[in-house]
Structure formats: C-alpha cells, structure tokens
C-alpha cells in the first residue's frame, strides 16, 4: 500500500471511531468512499494495531459496508479476504523446520499459530460488532453462493465452518418450546422456514402449535436472539399413524387424551449459513427426553418413514439435519423405543 | 490398547448412554472404576465414533469424573491430554509437503486441519455437556496451577486460551448494571471477587450500588449464566475527588444532584481461568457510553491515579484488565474527556 | 332449607374439598347433581362458615358449574343471586333507627355494613378461585344480556359495576406497547376486538404495529393476564392527514422520518363485561406522555374527526371509551396541543 | 367554602395538571401552601368534577403532601377525612323512606349508594396515582396509630379495611418461592420483617433459604410490587423435630435426603396496614400443595407447637395470620396429615 492509502486508513479510523476536531471535511470524505472499498479497508484496519474498543466501531463499519455490496462485489470481497488475510509462508517454513527438528507439543503450538489463516482472527474481530454473529452467518450464505461461481473460495468456507461450529457448539444453544404465546416475529419465521410440509398461513401454524396434541421445539443461540436455528414438529397421537395427511389436516384433539405415540413429522434448518453445523441429533434427543418426562404415557417415538412427502424428501437430502434424522430414527426408535435415552 | 481395554470402553459407553438389558453388573463395574481412569477413558470415547447425542452423556461423565480428581491426579490428566490428543506427525509431514509444492489457500486449509491439536476438538466436545463452559474455565484455572509444577503443560494452555478467546468474544457478552435488585447469589460473588478495594460485607456492598451516586456494571456470558466475568465500580461525584477514602466511606448523596464526574475506582476480573481474554476495555468504553446517554451532565471520566491503593495496585498488575484500564485511562480520559466515544 | 338439603350441602363441601374416607359413593352423588343446582349450592356454601382455604375449592366449583349453564339457566342463576344473597331488612331497620337517633360516622358504618348486599361478598369470594376475575367479567357480560330479558336483574349489575370499578382501578393497570414481538395469542385478540377499523388479517395487523410509523398501546390487569382491556392505535405522520384511508393502506414509512403528528385513529374496549369502567382517558393521556418523551419532535396530537368512519362511529357511541375519547380530543388537542400534559 | 377558597382550588388544579401560560406566579403560590392544606384541598378537588386524567395528578399531589405530615397533622387530616367525606343525611333519609315503602333489590341498591361514605370513593381515587396502593396501606398504618389518640376515627378504618380486603383479595395475589436468587431488596425486607425467630443477618437468612432442606414462600400483590405481604418459613426434615433450636442452627443437610416432614416454623405479616386482611390460611394451604407436588416423599406437615418461642408467641397473638395458623394447624395436620388438601 502506498503512502496515500495509509493516509486514507488513518482518516478512516479517525472517522469511524471519533469525531475529529477541525477535520470534518476529510472525515466525510473517508466515509464517502464506495462500499466495496470501505469494506475492504475496514477489514485491513481491523487487523492492524488499534485499540480494542475502536475495533468495535471498525467492525460495525465493515459489516455495514459489506451489507451494501451486490453479488459481483461480494465475489471480489471474498477473494480479497482469501488473498489478503491468509498466512505468512516464510513463518510456516520456519515453524515447520523447528517442529521437524524437535516435534514436541510446544513446536506444534507454534506451527498451529502460523498455519491458522489470519481470516479466522478477522472473523472473530468482525464478531465484535453488535448483532454481528447473525450477519456473519448470512455472509457465509453469500459465500456458499459465490463458491458456485468461484470454487477457489472454498478455503474461506473452511474458516467459516470451523468458527461457526465452535461458536454454535451445542453447549451454547438453548432449546425452547414454541407455542401460540411465542412472539409473532418468531412464528412468522417458522412459516417462512418450513419446507418439508409447507404451512398455508397463520391458521395452519396455529394448528401445529395446539396444546393438546402438537409440539414444536427449536434451538436458539444467545447471539442470534430470536432466530430459530432448527426446529422439529411433533404430533402426539394414539397409535401410529400411517400417513402424514391426517396429521396435517386433523382438527385438534378435543381432550388431552393420553397419547401413546410421538410422531416427528418435520425438521427444518433455518439458516443456510450454518450448513454443516450439526444440530438435529441434539435437538431430537432432547425433545424425546422432555416429552418422556412431561408425558410418561408416551411409549413410541417414530417418524413417518413410508410416507411419500417426508420420507422421499429425507432420502433425497444430503445436508446435516436430514442425515441426522435418518440416523437417529433408523437407529434407536421404532424397533426399540424403550432404549432411547 | 489391548482387547480388554476396548471391551471396557464399549461397556462404558453403554453404561453412560443407556441402561443395558441384562448386563446391569458389567455396567456398574464400568462406572465403578476410579475417577482418574473414568476421566481419561471418557475423553477417549468422546473422540471416537459415537453418535452426537451419546457425546453429551460422555462429556458429562468426563467432567464429573474430572471434578473428583485431586491436584496430583489433575497433573496426570493434563499430561495425558497433552500426549494422547495431540497431532499425527505423519499427516503433518504429508500436508506440509503438499503445501510446499503448491502453496495455495486450499493447501493451507489442509495443513491447518492436521496441525490443530485434537485437544481443541476434545474441549469443544466436552463443552456439549450442560453447564460445561464454566467447568472448562475452572479446568483451565487448575491447569494454570499445574503448569507451575510442570511447565511442559504450556501447549495445552494455548489450546484453552485459543478456544476461550473465541467463545468469550465480546460479541457474545452482555453488559448488565448490577444494583440492589440483583439476585443475592450474584451480589455475594461481587463481595468475594472484589480485590482492589475489599468490601466489609453487605452494608458496604449496598453502599456501592446506591442509586443516587454509584454504579456497578458487569459482563456476563450466556453459557456461564449469573457469573459476572468482570465488573467495574463507578462513583458519580461533583468535581474530581482527590482520594479514594471518601468514595468508599461517604454516605449516599441525598438528592440525585447532577454529578459532573464519573470516577472509575475499581475493576475486577472474576474468573482466573479466563486469564488473557480481554474484557476490560470493552466494558469501560460501554459504561462510558451508557453513562453519557443516561446522565448528560457528566463531563469528566477519570480514575483515581494518584491514590495509593488503586494506582499502586494497577501499576503492579500484569494481567489483562489492569493493563487495559491503564491504557484506556491513560489515553483518552483525563486530558480530553470530551473526545471519549 | 330442609334437613335433606343440609345433608347434601355438607356432602358437597366434603366432596369438593377433600376425599372422604369410605364415602366415595355419596361424594360422587353430590358432584353428579345438575350444574344449575351445583352452582347455586356452591354459592350458598361459599357464604357459610367454612375455612378460607376450602372456599377456594368451592369457588372453583361454583364457577365451573356456572360455565355449563345455558342462557335460560343463567337467568335463573342470576335471579337466585338477587333473591338469596341480598340484605336483611330487619337489620337495616335497626341500623337505620340507631343512625337516626345518633347520626355519627360510626352509625353510618354500621348501616353501610347491613345495606351492602351479600352478593358483593359472594362475588369477592368467587374471586378466590384461580383465574376467577376474567370469569366474573364474562359473567357480568352474560348478566347484561340477561337483563334484556329481565330488567329486574339491574340491581345485581350495580354490585358487579361497583366491584369491577374498584378492582380495575387505574392504579392496578399496566400499560404495554404491543408490537410484532408480542405473543400471537395477544395479537389474535386485537384482530378480533378491533371494531372501529376492522383488520383483514395478520398482514393488516403487522402494518399497524410497524416500528417506523405506527404504535399500539393497551392496558392490562394482572388478574386477567394477557387480555388487553382497551387499546388505542396511533399513526405517526408528517403533517395532519385529512382522511383515514391512507393511514390504513399506506406502506410503512421507509426511514423513521421525524414525524411531527400523532394521529389517534382507533380505540377499542375488549371486554363487554367491563362496561362503565372507564379506561379510555387514562390510556390516551399516558400514551401522549410516553410519545412525547420518546419522540420530542411530535408537536400535534389529533384524531381524525371529519372522517366518515371513525367520527361517525364515535358520535354514535354511548359507551365509556368513546365518550372519553370525544371528551379528551375535543378538549385539549387540536386547538392547543402544546398544553396537553 | 368562600369564594376565595374556590379561586385557590381552581388555581390548584391548574397548577398541578398543566403549566399555566402567564400565571406562573399564582401557580407557584398554590403549590407553596402548607402540606396539611395541600393534602386536604387535593382531596376536595379529587371529589369534584375534573377529568379522569387530571385526577391522576391531583391524587399524586395529595399523597405527596400527606407524606410530609407529622403525627399531629395526620390526626387532623384523618378527622377532616371523616367529617368532610362522609354521607348526605338527607339522601339517606329519602332513600330509606323509598326502600321502606317498596323494599325491593333496586331500592336497596339506591340506599347502598347513599350510605357508602364518600371516603371510599376518595380512597379509590387516591389509588389512581402511580405507586399509590402501598402508600394507602401505610396511610392506614398511620390511621391505626392515630386511633389510639382518637378512637373516634374508627369509622374511617372500616372504609380502609373494606377496600383493602377487596383489593388484596386472594385472587389477586401471587405466591413466589424466595430463594438465594431473589433480589437483595426483597431479602433485606425478610430480615427486617421476621419477628418470630429473628435473623442475625445475611448468613442467617441464607441458611433459611438453603435449597436442600429449607423453603420460604411469600404472597405478593401486583400493585405493591416487591413487597412480600406475608411469608412462611419451612424446614424439611427427617422425622419430627422436638425443638426449634436445631432448625435455626443446624448446618444445611449435605445431600438432598428425602425428607419426610415439613415443619412450618415461622409465619410473618409484613405490612401493619393490612391488619385484618386474611392471607395466612391461603398461603399455608398453597405451600402444602406445592410441597406435596414437588416432594412426594413428604408425609407429615407440622408446626412446632410445644416449643417455647413460636407456640407461646402464637398463643399470645390476636391478629389474623396467627389465628389462621392456629386454626389451620390445629385442624387438619398433625393428627391426620394425609387428608390435607
């Protein structure tokens, strides 16, 4: 970067972290650059030597500039992310040589440090901004799209996948039952995200939340607030149903009859940007545990395998929750429900 | 591991994930092994090929077995963590050779994968258990103690430090004001953790939370619940006090007089296991922002530098929050409070 | 009441407050009486000498029996309420005579005690049951309907009105802003209760809750939970609109432009059983206060008087909130908005 | 009231409901009158023909003026409350005559209306102010003290008692378990209000809230917020203790052993101003129900009757909760615990 660029950088930091006395004009000029430039520069600044607190403001700037980019500009952004925030080859060579000579744990740690792409630090720093986690998940969704145009972006995705798997560790998730008392803003998302058995609207949704014979559970993450990451829909029935139709259309059971069967008839991931992060098994197992404790009369936990819609869809899926559901349901349940723990 | 050991392993998984039909005796035998063995074995199982949901139970078992260890046994546990869950040297050599030949981002990603010690995966899997995050923070506190006996454990600490910095990213923290309406269980911890200006008891604490002229803010993390990670104490005064004494002993200001000065007179980290994870600057900056918005009459934000207790303590500290406070206060504040953002 | 009746009574109390040892048959018999009889008897028991805690169970029984009555049976129930739980004429005569002789405050208090119909005590005791308050409000709604068939029931209504006005005192109400994060169970009621400008469905409702330029506030009572007692809808506009049409159909304002006008375009009472209890003025005044504090740019607070729909409806109404709104709006606002406090 | 007085009144309303243009001086003059005069006048204004919303401001004024009165002035205030806000004798005579002629329910209702002292309306209107309910409870506490000096104030107390019994109806109360996670502001009150077995401080309190073997439950009212109205303390033991000493001093049971006995060892009313309003029985019965559901191993529910402290105290008490506890415990429990419902 030439001298002029550096001058712009410092103006930029100045501009977005505090109001300059007497330099209003330059400040405005810095912030008036095109979004694609601001996004890239903010990332560079973020990796430089600025105070922790200034980083929050720079990260916000980077994300809001990114939000203005179109598909073409995002492609360029991701490429610069790959090329500008990678590794230092010379440092790798040296650390490898040291490890090769004395391959102990300390040498591994040194090697690990230089092999980790700077991008991972960049993503962690972008995450400093309020609300950043959800924006980063959406950024990864954009990346997955961009990879179709440029498969060479795949390495960045490994950084995203690595970080998101760590951040969305099951230990950080909370499970909530969603019923008709949930905020409309959450319910609206369920209607939008349900893709196994689509809902026709609010009436349909209300049916699927009916206290007497339906349940819906979702995982949430504290940093993504009211965004349901994955949700599973359960029907409580007497005996095993042999088709999905009645489950979707039957009126609510009048009395809370002691159902003996829990039918898992739909499971949906909400955020494409969390592809590969595995939630499904955890959710299903916890729902089984909760239902058993709450409704001791439940004896059988099944999915509706022979049914066209779901089973066909399930068989065709390759993403995580579907695979998990197949595994989970194939294994323990129908044959040996009592053993499910 | 010999065949017998493998048999024990499968009994163990069986034992802690489901009740075996007709094998009650073996199950009890597996769970009756000494805690040090159970802890190690559970970690091995956790890294093997078992279902996601079984992992939750195994992680719980590992952590509860770990909790029973004494200092000597913990030393052994950490050594096995270092030696059994490291890297595969052959895989490193191959990935390095591939990268050396074609040093692109994809080759870096492959190298990264094999250089990351298996311990990091182990820690992420231990974190699956309910309440695990706080237990892992305490495990690291034990590790820091163990490192005094065996400095060769340092590489494990780098894994802990790396993961905890990622998990306790500022984007995941929430700031809360603590006042007299906070749960006693939290307040009790403040009395325990305050080490800059000790509190004599509940009366002393209540004084420091007085609505009219005191504030206390803390960062919390969703996964560690009501554990205040770091907290800062502020006095609202008229004019700049020249000693800490009055701040600690003065009775509550009668009327909420429009204070013009906010004195940051104490900042404390609570969890030794989060050493090196930097919170202080973020907390101070956010408190400044909140106070400015709530009390526009505040013009000056200072610490009590020339005062024996705090300044001496601050100067002597080498850990993160103290350094941050020194930096934060040295920089913007006393000389130019209006510019703090 | 003959001896047989008394026997039934004690069985009844026995039946609904504890399980009788060895008298299962009689207990079931008592509970098997027709609902109309159970409702009346439970009221009698409630006024007798039983323990406080037993009263909770008897009150529940009375209300659940009442809930089974049809219109005809309710008429009979109200008549017995009027005739069986009135006053003791002889006691009135004596207290009056005493007061007439020495008309001091103590004599008034004695007279008051005997003039208050026993019904008021009955209603207070019915209120002991969980969730009773809302059921009593609905009972009064039934009463208002029954009075059309039998105007002689009016005196009971005075007891209801007296008690409900006391219980739903403004000091016990809390105002909440309702937005898209409110529970669907509440929002659904708004769609149902809105009668000034009907909503077509959830899309329509969401428009009326839009953050940028709409507000909806409601009063709630702790004992009736999520039941909005009254709600008012406000549009934030630039300049005074001259028709209701655009307010109902305009898309959400893109940016939160600094609106200068708050248009109160609809106000609705939800519970017919609270007829005569006045909420409207309190709600409107508090909304004005909240909006002024939150949005200082608001200068004008108006209703849409010359508009067909609302003004015509308002003029035609005789119930409390409409009258209040007329008064409130007629007085302070359009001519002299700055003076509204 | 002469003309001058009326002028003052209207200034007063003006002063406290809105800022007068160009009459600042008169306004300040009105508000500068002595508190005793302001309190009385505000009550008069409150009973006059002003808008609903203005009443909120006038009620606030009345209560804040009242709060400034000393004991002597309060005596005068209560006398004027008795004498200025009573009944209209002529109206009583007429309504009585009408009823005497045709003693139907409608005539009773008319008579009731004129016999109810205006004070009750006054108290209901004072309750319009935010936070008024607790202030009225404290006002009644003052009244009980004043009645010792002037027994002629007793009739007012009947109005207070009548209204408070209606407002603090059990249907409006919520029971909460208080543990160590409760706000310090609530816990502090328990230490203050406990008078059966005094607590020495926070350590003592913490012991009484210990999860393993102690319970504390309280009733709260929505309008008095975090004020515990009454609370009961329970020890969970194995076998029936024969003295209070061990209960107060024993360390926490190590493991949550399945206790078989619940010992109710203390019950306290918090607010003297709620004298005569009966809570104790309701609280005890509900605690018994909650404990039975939560801890099915509990078989015996007792108090410590033969113990000096509590039993002696209980026997000596004449107020409501003590009497209730005596009754409740005498009746169902020790002899036949299984029957308690």
Automatic annotation (TrEMBL), chains A, B, C, D:
Boundaries of each Malonyl-CoA decarboxylase C-terminal domain copy? 171-320
**Which intervals hold domain Malonyl-CoA decarboxylase N-terminal?**
86-168
Q: Which InterPro entries match?
A: Malonyl_CoA_deC, Malonyl_CoA_deC_C, Malonyl_CoA_deC_C_sf, MCD_N, MCD_N_sf
Organism per entry:
Paracoccus liaowanqingii
Superkingdom classification of source: Bacteria
Task: Give an example GO biological process.
Answer: fatty acid biosynthetic process
Report a single Gene Ontology molecular function. Answer: malonyl-CoA decarboxylase activity
Its name, as the record gives it, is MCD, Malonyl-CoA decarboxylase MCD
One matching Pfam family? MCD
Which PANTHER family did the record assign? MALONYL-COA DECARBOXYLASE, MITOCHONDRIAL, PTHR28641
